[in-house]
């Protein structure tokens, strides 16, 4: 059954044709080889809203929300080689304090600027930016583009050539809590590469392009999605519905478990800026002409700009070969130099490796960090940024709530469902109870639930949602529930995701699992929000009691941050050690939760209504608790719980604080 907003308070729920599935769709594990749905938008405004959300989701998963402070690049440019029609120089940039990015700068010779500029990331090819084979040649494209009138900066992927101070891939569960990954460092380096190019006096900052192949193509459209300074894009051999890339090409929460957040959707965020998609008949982009390209063109059509996106497919294996390069030359010349002629590749000479490598016979600056120190500095910076948001008055509380609302939104990736999207079906009806399943329209989720009605309802007692880590069966016949019912209150108990009757096989063993799927704990937070909305519509009550027992108290504490006003929370925090990373990995694993502000952010967001937190550990950030929240170190008695629920307030009547 389905609700409409107009009937939320004043009318019963109404029937809908949509059914809740027999199996929760969230148990289907997505991965890099899932065949993803094509992007579809109801209209231009709907697309712009979605694209704005996705931009922040990409940045958050990369650890760039909020963006780190841009330190001076301290650019070192040296070793100039003068060749016919172009020059080559070595470049070393400090993209993050203590981290150095190496690359080469190709410039036109014998021409007057300002020039358009091209960022040129490479892919997983053996020699990185120095790769020169019939299938892939980075020097060929850089030399030819420079001769044509472009400034080109080609730079290393992390772990390649001059940028090997940290491994190519890194990032475990602890790093995920802080949104630290090789994917994020790649993306940050690309943003800083644009900073470098636009800082050059002979570069036209309004004409910036990007091109790369394979994972370099992924970096190209990721950069374009989050940085509007890139005006023209040409990703090669990467936009696919059937292969997304893992490892350095992804990060926890990047795709958030949605069945359509693929490289196709992210590439479509380039619209309406010009983009050339190059695919190959011999790799995972073989279907681009018939599947991915038409879907992206439909997004461009929302802007009346379908002519701004083009597609070329070459009959080759995975590549950035001469045919692909010439297609890109023609496109960049048309878009950035206003030249419509066919541009053929000229012969080129590849330099010796020592003449291109930045660190040949040189060493990195003395402040270059190891991976361990880089991660530690990253975490320290995140903690400092969180501490700066600690409110001390009404104005700073409002500012902190705005900042933490955004951060928690993209860490939890949950939302309060609109009333009309909440579904329910009755499975069994008894005199004072109903077995139900709840869900959300179009999401495929399934939440077993039990509604228990008081034999003598008391309208002064708000309905309660009780969440237990063992599900509804651990609640339904408890003395706590019986006491609430005797007071005249109704109770909804749920089997939150992967608890009680909702337990089902779900393989979470893959290293990239959180890149493509939300964790169990994130889904549990969502189920609590869905259940709250169901109670609102069913009861019409302006107040709801949310009761989290054992570790479900932690789920409930974070769920309340995303709920409307009128939710009174009493949560057992189960002695959760709020400053210990391993605790989150073992007991409440949600990527990005620590960088988003963890329990500090939740304390700020829950500074409304009535909140009782109990069984808290010594690590709980009590200094962040706001007026209206009471904190107890001991677990409260059942009698106190019932009194609190029935009264809607703490039975002690004492001011907030820790006891």
List the helices and strands and how they pair.
Layout: H1 44-61, E1 76-83, E2 86-96, E3 99-108, E4 115-121, H2 138-148, E5 151-155, H3 173-177, H4 182-199, E6 203-213, H5 215-226, E7 232-236, H6 263-268, E8 275-282, H7 292-301, E9 309-317, H8 322-336, H9 353-356, H10 371-387, H11 394-412, E10 422-430, E11 433-440, E12 447-452, E13 464-467, H12 473-476, H13 479-486, E14 491-494, H14 513-516, H15 520-539, E15 544-548, H16 552-561, E16 567-572, H17 581-587, H18 598-605, E17 611-614, E18 629-631, H19 638-647
Helix pairs in contact: 2-8, 4-5, 11-18, 13-19, 15-16, 16-18
Description:
The chain has 19 helices and 18 strands. With 659 residues, it is of the alpha/beta class. The chain folds into 2 domains: 45-380, Rossmann fold; 393-502 and 515-647, Rossmann fold, CATH 3.40.50. The longest helix is centred in the C-terminal third of the chain and has 20 residues, at 520-539. It is elongated, with a radius of gyration of 28 Å. It starts with 43 loop residues before the first helix and ends in a 12-residue tail after the last helix. Residues 1-12 and 649-659 have low confidence and may be disordered.
What count of structural domains?
Answer: 2
Number of H/I helices: 19
- Principal-axis shape equals elongated
* CATH fold-type name of the largest domain: Rossmann fold
Question: What's the count of strands?
Answer: 18
Uncertain residue segments? 1-12, 649-659
Radius of gyration: 28 Å
Largest sheet: 9 strands, mixed
Can you list the strand order of the major beta sheet?
1-2-3-5-4-6-7-8-9
- Structural classification: alpha/beta
Q: What is the CATH C-level name of the largest domain?
A: Alpha Beta
The separation of the N and C termini measures: 45 Å
Task: Provide the residue-averaged pLDDT.
Answer: 94
**Helical residues, percent:** 25-40%
Q: Strand fraction band?
A: 15-25%
What quaternary form is this?
A: single chain
Q: Based on the structure given, which CATH architecture of the largest domain is correct?
A: 3-Layer(aba) Sandwich
CATH superfamily of the largest domain: Alpha/Beta hydrolase fold, catalytic domain
């Amino acid at each position: 059954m389905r609700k409409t907003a107009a009937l939320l308070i004043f009318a019963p729920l109404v029937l809908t044709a949509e059914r809740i599935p027999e199996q929760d769709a969230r148990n289907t594990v997505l991965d890099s080889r899932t065949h993803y749905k094509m992007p579809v938008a109801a209209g231009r405004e709907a697309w712009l809203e979605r694209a704005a959300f996705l931009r922040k989701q990409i940045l958050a998963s990369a650890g760039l929300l909020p963006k780190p402070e841009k330190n001076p690049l301290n650019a070192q440019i040296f070793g100039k080689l003068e060749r016919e029609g172009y020059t080559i120089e070595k470049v070393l940039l400090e993209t993050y304090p203590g981290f150095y990015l190496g690359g080469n700068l190709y410039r036109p010779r014998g021409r007057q600027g300002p020039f358009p500029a091209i960022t040129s990331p490479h892919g997983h090819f053996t020699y990185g930016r120095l790769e020169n084979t019939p299938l892939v040649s980075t020097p060929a494209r850089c030399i030819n583009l420079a001769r044509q009138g472009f400034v080109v900066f080609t730079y290393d992927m992390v772990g390649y050539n001059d940028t090997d101070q940290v491994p190519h891939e890194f990032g475990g569960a602890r790093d995920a809590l802080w949104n630290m990954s090789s994917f994020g460092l790649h993306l940050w380096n690309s943003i800083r590469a644009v900073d470098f190019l636009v800082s050059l006096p002979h570069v036209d900052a309004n004409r910036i392009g990007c091109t790369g192949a394979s994972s370099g193509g992924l970096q190209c459209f990721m950069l374009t999605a989050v940085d509007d300074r890139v005006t023209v894009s040409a990703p090669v051999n990467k936009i696919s519905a059937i292969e997304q890339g893992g490892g350095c090409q992804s990060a926890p929460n990047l795709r958030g478990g949605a069945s359509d957040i693929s490289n196709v959707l992210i590439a479509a965020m380039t619209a309406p800026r010009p983009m050339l998609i190059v695919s190959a008949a011999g790799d995972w982009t073989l279907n681009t002409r018939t599947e991915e390209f038409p879907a992206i063109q439909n997004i461009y059509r929302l802007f009346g700009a379908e002519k701004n996106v083009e597609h070329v497919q070459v009959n080759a294996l995975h590549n950035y070969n001469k045919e692909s390069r010439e297609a890109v030359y023609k496109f960049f010349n048309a878009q950035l130099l206003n030249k419509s002629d066919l541009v053929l590749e000229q012969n080129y000479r590849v330099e010796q490796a020592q003449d291109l490598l930045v660190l040949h016979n040189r060493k990195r600056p003395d402040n270059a960090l190891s991976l361990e120190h880089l991660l530690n500095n990253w975490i320290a910076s995140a903690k400092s940024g969180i501490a700066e948001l600690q409110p001390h008055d009404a104005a700073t509380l409002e500012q902190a709530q705005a900042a933490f609302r955004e951060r928690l939104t993209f860490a939890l990736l949950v939302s309060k469902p609109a009333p009309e999207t909440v579904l329910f079906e009755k499975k069994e009806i008894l005199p004072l109870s109903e077995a139900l399943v709840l869900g959300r329209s179009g999401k495929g989720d399934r939440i077993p639930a039990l509604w228990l009605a008081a034999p003598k309802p008391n309208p002064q007692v708000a309905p309660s949602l009780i969440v237990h880590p063992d599900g509804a069966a651990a609640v339904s016949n408890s003395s706590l529930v019986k006491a609430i019912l005797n007071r005249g209150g109704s109770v909804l108990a749920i089997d939150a995701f992967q608890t009680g009757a909702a337990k089902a096989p779900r393989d979470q063993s893959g290293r990239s699992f959180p890149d493509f799927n939300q964790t169990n704990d994130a889904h549990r937070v969502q189920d609590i929000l869905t259940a709250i909305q169901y109670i609102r519509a069913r009861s019409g009550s302006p107040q709801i009691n949310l009761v989290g027992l054992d570790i479900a108290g932690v789920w409930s504490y974070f769920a309340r941050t995303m709920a409307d006003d009128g939710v009174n929370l009493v949560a057992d925090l189960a002695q959760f050690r709020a400053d210990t990373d391993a605790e989150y990995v073992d007991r409440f694993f949600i990527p990005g939760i620590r960088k988003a502000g963890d329990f500090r952010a939740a304390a700020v967001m829950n500074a409304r209504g009535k909140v009782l937190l109990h069984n808290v550990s010594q690590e709980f950030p009590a200094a962040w608790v706001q007026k209206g929240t009471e904190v107890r170190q001991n677990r409260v008695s059942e009698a106190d719980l019932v009194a609190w629920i029935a009264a809607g307030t703490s039975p002690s009547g004492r001011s907030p604080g820790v006891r």
